[in-house]
Write a structure and sequence with these properties.
The structure holds two protein chains of two kinds. By secondary structure, chain A is mainly beta. Helix content of chain A is 14%, strand content 38%. The chains are: A mainly beta, B mainly beta.
Chain lengths: 130, 25
């Protein structure tokens, strides 16, 4: 079983976690590639992939969190989220990245790059209805 | 000896943030 010592950790980021793509294919989380997300969004009804560029990384007022500022999608909308520093994001062409690759490695055993301003992350949103 | 264990399968979209842009004023 996955480690349970850190109850709040989402176990889908644990190295070895099995992920089902929208095509039905199963992959380990550490083996996912940009194309897997793109293809999954294509075959998912109602979801679309957005490019979310990290424009600022700040300390969060919430202790133990960091505040990430993104500009999202074609509209370049500003979105701010508070996450734990070990939370991985999938960066286009680079793979899993977090504000603290050391913590991600320690808590999830998931190899990560350092998330930096300018990185373009994969996010999803609802496809607009035409 | 490897003990059998249940394996969870997670959907791909649980891995990426849902960033819904707020509506412009």
């Amino acid at each position: 079983a996955f480690a349970h010592s850190q109850g709040h950790l989402p176990s889908h980021f644990m190295k070895g976690a099995i992920i089902q793509l929208a095509t039905g294919e199963l992959k380990r989380v550490e083996d996912l590639q940009t194309q897997d997300f793109v293809r999954s969004a294509e075959v998912s009804g109602g979801l679309k992939i957005d490019s979310s560029t990290v424009v600022d990384i700040q300390e969060s007022p919430w202790q133990g969190f960091v505040m990430l500022h993104f500009v999202v999608g074609e509209q370049q909308s500003k979105v701010t989220i508070d996450v734990r520093p070990e939370h991985p994001f999938f960066v286009y062409g680079q793979g899993w990245s977090s504000c603290s690759p050391e913590r991600t490695a320690r808590l999830f055993s998931l190899p990560c790059h350092k998330l930096q301003v300018g990185d373009v992350c994969i996010s999803i949103s609802l496809q607009s209805l035409n | 000896n490897v003990e059998p264990r249940s394996v969870a399968v997670f959907p791909w979209h649980s891995l990426v943030p849902f960033l819904a842009p707020s509506q412009p004023d």
